[in-house]
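Please decode residue identities from the backbone states below.
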């Protein structure tokens, strides 16, 4: 889907949803899910809708979830506030969008040089991450669940080729959050803007570079029309999770089976969304290269190395935070990563290296 038809489909989709609002049977509950994603947005908007449909189906309609895509009910970056103030019961987005409420929330999406998809799931589910996340969100009367993961993201679209870290100096780059802080330490002039504004900013020359997610999303947004250098991997966004946030009091008031349905459907979607990206990123990348003349490049070592140094500084600053809960989150994350990386390094990475070297399919 090209950029224009994607935007058009979004507008039509919004109208169709409003017209198709289902009749609710007596005694059933309807929850409103606001999202930070455009309607039908590959991987993410689609994942939010699929999660809503899963909960509705699994509960036999006893808990019917109605989705409102970005801007339909509230602006995308007010989705968490909409749950906190009771405008909606659920939000589908990314925890790091709310790092102004608590920097601890960044860890539940992903941090620079942090965890892969598999590692993040392991930390949250089996190494105390969920319990700490619950403590963080208790401050706001909500609860978060993992609801998807993009996998390792693309490093970004650059108008010019990067020969070394010196080429980052002064580069006007759209990249948000802690990743943005890392690029700033490397010398870039960092800005954030919503998905729909990036293309225009690249075209007009306001930006020299931009990253969003990866091939699956970036193809739909049309960045290849204005940039040809597509760099990998995103060392600042190695495996980014989406979240489902629920109003905690309303969630706890649900019968136990409906609580389990919400929790388990969200957990299932963590793997489903990751599979969607795993299947469609490489196919989208083929299209970008074969049909649109995009050059796939790896970051020079000097950028990867300087990026790691800057990432450690950012993590240390969080670990030294005066906020006890931020410190606790950072410490748990770093200690868990030390354990998790041994499996990745000793088992997964050598296998991938051997497969690349010897399997000649
Ligand atoms: Ca990104």
């Amino acid at each position: 889907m090209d950029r224009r038809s994607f935007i058009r489909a979004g507008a039509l989709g919004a109208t169709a949803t409003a017209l198709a609002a289902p009749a609710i049977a007596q005694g059933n509950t309807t929850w409103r899910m606001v999202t930070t994603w455009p309607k039908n947005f590959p991987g993410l908007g689609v994942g939010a809708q699929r999660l809503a449909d899963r909960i509705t189906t699994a509960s036999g309609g006893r808990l019917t979830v109605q989705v409102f895509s970005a801007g339909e009910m509230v602006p995308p970056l007010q989705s968490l506030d909409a749950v906190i103030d009771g405008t909606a019961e659920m939000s589908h987005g990314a925890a790091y969008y709310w790092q102004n409420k608590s920097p601890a929330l960044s860890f539940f999406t992903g941090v620079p040089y942090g965890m892969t998809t598999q590692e993040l799931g392991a930390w949250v589910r089996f190494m105390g991450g969920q319990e700490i996340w619950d403590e963080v969100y208790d401050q706001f009367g909500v609860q978060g669940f993992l609801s998807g993961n993009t996998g390792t993201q693309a490093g970004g679209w650059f108008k010019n080729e990067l020969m070394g870290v010196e080429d980052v100096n002064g580069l006007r780059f759209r990249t948000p959050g802690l990743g943005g802080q890392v690029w700033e330490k490397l010398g870039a002039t960092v800005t954030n803007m919503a998905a729909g504004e990036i293309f225009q900013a690249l075209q007009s020359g306001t930006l020299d570079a931009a990253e969003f997610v990866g091939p699956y999303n970036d193809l739909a947004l049309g960045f290849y029309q204005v940039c040809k250098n597509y760099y990998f991997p995103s060392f600042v966004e190695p495996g980014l999770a989406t979240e489902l946030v629920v109003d905690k009091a309303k969630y706890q008031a649900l019968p136990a089976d409906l609580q389990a349905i919400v929790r388990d459907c969200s957990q299932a979607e963590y793997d489903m969304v990751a599979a969607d990206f795993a299947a469609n990123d490489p196919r989208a990348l083929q299209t970008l290269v074969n049909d649109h003349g995009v050059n796939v490049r790896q970051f020079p070592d000097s950028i990867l190395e300087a990026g790691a140094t800057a990432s450690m500084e950012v993590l240390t600053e969080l670990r030294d935070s005066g906020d006890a809960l931020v410190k606790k989150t950072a410490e748990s994350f770093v200690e868990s990563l030390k354990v998790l990386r041994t499996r990745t390094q000793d088992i997964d990475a050598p296998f991938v290296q051997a497969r690349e070297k010897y399997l000649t399919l």
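Observation: The pocket of calcium ion is lined by residues 153, 211-213, 237 (CB under 6 Å).
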